[in-house]
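From the pipeline queue, job 12 of 40. The input is one protein chain; the requested action is below.

Action: predict structure.
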Amino acid sequence: MKKLLFIAAAGLAIAGCARVDVVDPSVEVGQEVPIAFSTNKKNITKATQNLETTLHYNFGVWAQKYGGTGMATQTVMENYLVGFGGTAVGYDHANATTWASAAGTDGDHTSPWFYEGLGNAEYSTSTAGFYTTSDTKYMSANANQYLRYWDLAYVNTNFYCYAPYMASGVTASLSADGSATITFDAANSIKDGYDKTLNSSYAKQDRSLSEFMYAGVKATNSDLKDIVVPFKHMGSQIFIRFYESVPGYKVEIVDLSADNGTMSTGATADQKKGIQATPASVSGTTYTKSSYYTSAGATVVFDADAVPTFTPSTTGSTTSTENLMFFAPSTAASDYSTANVPAGFGGNLTAYNGTQSSVTDHNVIPESVTSGQTYAWSPTIYYPVPQPASQTVGFTFHVTYRIICEDNKEVITVHDAKVHVPYTNTTWAAGNRYIYTFNITRDSKGSTNPGTTIDPQNPTPQTDKALFPIVFDGCTIEDFTEVPSSYDIN
């Protein structure tokens, strides 16, 4: 009676960006003007979509000035760490003369973002909340980072930016015409990650270390204007959501660990959690657990106008056969507090009482409507690295759910329903958001037997129906039984 149906993997361009400001002073030409950075003053899209509000507190930058008469191209910044300093968050700004508690105008020369004093021989703090020198992944590759100024003897300065910052594993080659190439080593750079994990033992890379972005800007030195730098994503996002279209029934998504079936022998705690997706290749009707890429290298080529072109690489990349894991939709508002998510992202669950079950209170997902459809979203956001176009690995999703009859509150559990999302929908190109939408319908290939063996590591979808309708068919009437009786009439 039910089927977990994959509807679509919609590639929606991620508009996530940050901005970088090079200060615009209201001063006489020739006065020293510091080069400063900000991500707040003129956001290109939404004010909430900047680095610090998405928990990224640094980025890296190379810069070179060029185009002066008889002047040789010269490097201004070489993998400088630019950091955000908030209230006990990010970097301690004690040594930054350009720091301000909030973004101001384009010409105030101050910003919560700074680079002065962030060299590894300069930066030191014991103040709680800030990065300290023991947080080596957030420290600069440079011993010293000095405040830089615009040089009006040159025509242009190009900025080649990336986030998050890396002290190693990233290199740059700068050319005299203002073009450049930044190379990210596959073993040390772009990694997959989660916004929320199901279990600390399964924690992937911290998003602030794994959600990579890049940007380039060509500045005209004599303008002394702030620079807006729109970052683009090197990876992508994956969301999953649900709705149901079963007349007369409510549907509740159940965490696999709350399922009353039987877990497969040897299943670990992580393997019993949430909604899971097993990587698998398919040949005919045979599903084989396979590996997908969890890290990637890349090159970003900037032309003479600092316009970037991003090319990922899997050479030397790491792979995994681990399941992807997503929380079941939740009623907790705090589970959906992540910035930079699609419109309508949230729990969207409705409380429903079922009296004929040991579980009497249910949180059911939205039903199908003709317009304005709402969905129950998993609060987990997965950040995959780009997969090569030639890859042939899809994912088999494992979902357990309950159906609750609307008249007498009868409850039936469908154990480990599975659906395979083909590899054509799992290439996960950079800069795209993929939303996998599942509709619970009347046909299912799960099982309602309480003794069902649940194996989240098995990528093969079931072929037998889970729910069989109760019907009345071939009604017959048994013929009368003859009871003979004989009498004589005299």
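Job complete. The mean pLDDT is 82.
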